[in-house]
Amino acid sequence: MIFSDQHRELQRTVQNFVQQEINPNVAEWEKAGRFPIREIFQQLAGLGLLGISKSTDFGGLGLDFSYETVFLEELGGAHCGGVPLSISVQTSMCTPALANFGSQDLKEQFLIPAVNGEMIGAIAVSEPGAGSDVASIKTTAKSDGDDYVINGSKMWITNAPCADFFCTLVNTSEGKAHSNKSLIIIPAKTPGVRIGEKLDKLGMRSSETAPIFFDNVRVPKHFRIGDEGAGFLLQMLQFQEERLAGAALNLKGLENCVSSTIDYVRERQAFKAPLIDNQTIHFALAEMQTEVECLRSLTWRAVEAYVAGEDVTTLASMAKLKAGRLSRSIPDQCLQFWGGMGYIEETVINRAYRDSRLTAIGGGADEVMLGIICKLMGILPGKRKPNA
């Protein structure tokens, strides 16, 4: 990917925002289990950062997804995972389908306020019995005249306690699992919507996460995104941006693990010598940095293909898989080099160890990414490679 001056200016803008508005407050926000999301979103919107790849007709900058990726990569330089996660839910998870397939009315009601930082969105797909297995969701939307009546629940929903609307995947018929679903926007204040208790999590503590319950929730049918029954396909397309975002968000965080560990082992003495003098350690750090660069190359290759209009299901799945793998191995290895200090919660490496673990789970677990890749390689039992 060749960066333009516009890419680099955006990069500097996001770097400055992270360094000035996020990182000085991370320790406080982590302890509180929340951050001032509306204030931060309005600041981001003021810089045009909540609608980078959204149409100018709806308040966005009208740039391609490579600019969105620059934003996401630099956002990952925050000294926590929760704040970047909440922001990326708004930009890359709950609004792509709305922006690409929503009606003019839906975009005016929900996309423009989301881009302007006036509304907070969330993506409501996962359920207690259906995480990565999206086809198994049970939440229903029954037709009743010009409305849908929605019943069911969603689980592990980031931004739920503060969201104004949910981009929700539901079953709108009794048909086959891949053709009976629809994406529907559900305003949070609709009667029958109840947000459960905030969940206590291993990591991502500064983002707020909770279950959602729908009890005879009535919404007009024109709140549906795209055609009835097209929801599974639209969500799969939306997952492409989510998975590319997941890979991009991890790049700077993984680099921070390596760089902070270099600083620590350079100063830490053991057996009358700096730890970094140990070949096992400095070779391992070089190996980790190389792995991060491999992930960066794969991610940007996928982004270039996506911008060119290509199907990037394989590359996005590979990037997400690699990000999940490295987000488990690199923080773990770095924490080991920090020794007892790495086990203390206030350290950067401890927070990275906790926060990054979600990468291999959220947005499709590693095993699901492997299944997608195998299917597209034609190596699943009983499957042939397409066009083979």
Short recap of the structure:
This protein is an alpha+beta fold and 388 residues long.
Q: How far apart lie the N and C ends?
A: 31 Å
Rg of Cα set: 21 Å
Instruction: Please name the CATH architecture of the largest domain.
Output: Up-down Bundle
Q: List how many beta strands DSSP finds.
A: 10
- Please give the CATH class of the largest domain: Mainly Alpha
What characteristic shape results from the CA principal axes? globular
- Give the count of helical stretches: 12
User: Biggest sheet: strands, sense, closure?
Assistant: 4 strands, mixed
Beta fraction: 5-15%
Summing up helix and strand content along with how strands pair, one would put the structural category as: alpha+beta
Mean pLDDT: 96
The ordered string of helix (H) and strand (E) elements is: HHHHHHHEEEEEEEEHEEHHHH
SSE blueprint:
Layout: H1 5-22, H2 26-32, H3 37-46, H4 65-75, H5 82-93, H6 96-101, H7 104-115, E1 121-124, E2 140-144, E3 147-158, E4 165-171, E5 181-187, E6 193-195, E7 209-220, E8 224-225, H8 231-267, E9 269-270, E10 273-274, H9 279-307, H10 313-338, H11 348-355, H12 366-377
Parallel strand pairs: 1-4
Antiparallel strand pairs: 2-3, 3-7, 4-5, 5-8, 6-7, 9-10
